[in-house]
Inverse folding.
């Protein structure tokens, strides 16, 4: 740059950042728990660099948009019964994983993987509750 | 048990379109020092509901490690680790995109695409956060009957 030029100096922060710099910035903002700023930076990154895989992915993950609405699939199931069951059997099943549908115990065991695996082999009128009893 | 899930605004537009029970604690029968709000959600088509605490301070939805191991293959991962600062400490994990469905008793089930934080060492239970989840719909509480009203969705 000509030091005698009268043209105003361009502010460095108005230049388009590189994709790598934006990615680093998003990472730093996330680490610093500045979530709103990270989301904004991710949206900006995806707009400036639509072909950059990580920036595109960051925008997708940090700024989700889709909401689908379906009629309640568990309509008619009385969910209070599951809570009543937990209240009445808490001491008996302390430390266990349980799968409940209303007042019926579907499966119980020491591991989430075990009880969920057993419950998935059956069909239910509504989605059961899986819960670790503490 | 049938209940109208629709609450109306003063100009008669729907304020909520679904209703579900909520609980004060994930430990029914235990003494509760500070009642919270726990709702039933289904993360990432788990096929079952879980109880998750409504936490307006949580930046993401967070699920316990065993649930995380089951659902993570159905999520889209943002490569690289992320950290989460909490009152339980600082945890290193990963961010994912996935669906969390609010399970309604009456009305409509909203299936919300949201950001999920999973950490193999997370000791704090399940949370649904404000940003990216609760800020996507109207909601209201009836504390006399422990009913959580929600929707419509944007």
């Amino acid at each position: 740059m000509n030091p005698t030029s009268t043209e105003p100096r361009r502010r460095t922060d108005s230049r388009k950042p590189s994709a790598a710099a934006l990615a680093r910035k998003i990472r730093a903002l996330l680490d610093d728990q500045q979530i709103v700023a990270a989301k904004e930076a991710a949206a900006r990154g995806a707009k400036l660099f639509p072909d950059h895989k990580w920036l595109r992915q960051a925008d997708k993950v940090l700024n989700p948009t889709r909401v689908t609405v379906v009629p309640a699939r568990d309509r008619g199931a009385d969910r209070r019964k599951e809570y009543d069951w937990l209240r009445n059997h808490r001491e008996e099943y302390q430390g266990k994983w349980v799968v409940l549908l209303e007042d019926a115990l579907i499966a119980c065991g020491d591991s989430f993987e075990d009880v969920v695996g057993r419950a998935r082999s059956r069909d239910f009128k509504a989605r059961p509750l899986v819960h670790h009893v503490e | 048990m049938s209940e109208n899930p629709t609450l109306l605004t003063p100009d008669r537009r729907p304020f909520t379109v679904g209703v579900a029970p909520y609980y004060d604690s994930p430990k029914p029968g235990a003494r509760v020092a500070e009642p919270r709000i726990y709702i039933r959600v289904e993360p990432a088509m788990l096929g079952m509901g879980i109880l998750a605490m409504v936490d307006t301070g949580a930046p993401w939805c967070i699920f316990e490690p065993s649930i995380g191991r089951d659902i993570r293959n159905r999520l889209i991962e943002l490569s690289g680790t992320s950290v989460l600062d909490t009152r339980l400490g600082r945890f290193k994990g990963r961010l994912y995109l996935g669906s969390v469905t609010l399970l309604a008793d009456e009305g409509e089930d909203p299936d919300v695409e949201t950001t999920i934080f999973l950490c193999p060492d997370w000791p704090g239970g399940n949370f649904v956060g404000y940003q990216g989840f609760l800020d996507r719909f109207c909601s209201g509480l009836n504390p006399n009957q422990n009913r959580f009203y929600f929707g419509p969705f944007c």
Residues 36-134 of chain B form a domain with the Cathepsin D, subunit A; domain 1 fold (CATH 2.40.70.10). Chain B is about 5% helix and 50% strand.
